[in-house]
Write a structure and sequence with these properties.
The chain is α+β, with helices and mostly antiparallel strands. Helices cover about 30% and strands about 25% of the residues. The chain has one helix and three strands. The chain is globular, with a radius of gyration of 14 Å.
């Protein structure tokens, strides 16, 4: 089976939790109590979504680009 690479965005979800989502696969959204747990959860979620897409005959999207950038504003 071919391997796929996706960008994962990790964010502070509050109360110590880490939220993770994948821009290329909008249905992948998960969280963990730690960054390591969020990494495990998002990997599992990606694998499930890929399997579901294959079962439905849908394409697996190619790796897109993603960027996080800080923007400073007055206020």
């Amino acid at each position: 089976m071919p391997s796929h690479t996706f960008h994962v965005v990790f964010e502070d979800a509050g109360d110590g939790w880490v939220y993770a989502h994948v821009p290329e696969l909008p249905e992948v959204q998960t969280q963990g109590e730690t960054l390591d747990q969020a990494r495990e959860m998002v990997r599992d979620a990606i694998e499930l979504v890929i399997a579901d897409r294959r079962d439905r005959g849908e394409a697996i999207p190619p790796t897109a680009w993603a960027m996080v950038e800080s923007v400073e504003v007055a206020g």
